[in-house]
Amino acid sequence: MEQAARPPRYALLDTVRGVTVVNMILYHFLYDWYVVLGHAPGWPWLTGVRVWERLICGTFILLAGVCLHFDRHPLRRGGVLFGWGCVITAVTVLVIPQEAVHFGILSFLGAAIFLTGALRGALGRVPAAAGLAGSVVLFVLLRRVSAGVITLGPLVLAGLPDGLYRWYAGALLGFPPAGFVSSDYFPLLPWLLLLWCGWFGWRLAAPRLTAGRALFREWPAFSAIGRKSLLLYLLHQPLCLALAFGLNALV
Question: In total, how many domains does the chain have?
């Protein structure tokens, strides 16, 4: 029996991921310098910084949705990523409890990839344009679901029942209990819908994008970084902390 052909690897996606990884490392070094070391605790709340942080995370999430089309083992990969997310939670709780991560970006990506992989057949039957439009609309409406409300921009359309916000595990879905705190929090709602924007968006755009050579263009250095994104994610934060503490001792 012939093996299924391996899908092509589009270098441009690795390049975009690599650029995003570099931005992530720079952001986290500055976060450690300004927040963990206390040089400017309000730094993450500056408008430009908030936009930068969301662009980094949003790019990772959209790329994850796109790349699910090429993933032959999404359930396994999702489980691995979620497991590493649990490791990060345990390490941060023990080492830097004031900056502990509960249901951060890695836990989210693991859960979202696993869930999307399990639903891939059903999602594939949804017309791409309708799926993309529905994902965008729901993402906009559920942006503040963790605060207990459905919104449209500044307008509050509805409140959600308090009973949804009672359990720690509910925070993974987007329903954190009172007193829940995390230095990096990405619940399934609304962020799964952004991942699905990537999933449906690729289905809609792929016939045009794959017709030319644009997706095979790359910046070799960034592409190499993009192919090692998980390893770099796991290693970069302790290295950023060590560098920040080392520089702080010199000034």
Answer: 1
pLDDT at 1 over 80: no
Percent pLDDT > 70 in the chain is 96
Whether residue 118 lies inside any domain: the answer is yes
Q: Give the number of other Cβ atoms within 10 Å of residue 78's Cβ.
A: 23
> Quick one: three-class SS letters along the chain?
CCCCCCCCCCHHHHHHHHHHHHHHHHHHHHHHHHHHCCCCCCHHHCHHHHHHHHHHHHHHHHHHHHHHHHCCCHHHHHHHHHHHHHHHHHHHHHHCHHHCCCCCHHHHHHHHHHHHHHCHHHHHCCCHHHHHHHHHHHHHHCCCHHHCEEEECCEEEEECCHHHCCCCCHHHHCCCCCCCCCCCCCCHHHHHHHHHHHHHHHHHHHHHHCCCCHHHCCCHHHHHHHHCHHHHHHHHHHHHHHHHHHHHHHC
Residue 89 counted as domain residue: yes
Q: Given a cut of 60, is residue 212 above it in pLDDT?
A: yes
For the segment 85-99, the average pLDDT, to the nearest whole number, is 92
Question: Across residues 124-128, what is the average pLDDT?
Answer: 95
On whether residue 251 sits in a domain, the answer given is no
Q: Domain residues for 168? A: 74-201
Residues 6+ apart with CB under 8 A from 186: 57, 61, 103, 104, 105, 107, 108
Residue 33 resides in a domain: no
Q: 3 pLDDT exceeds 60? A: no
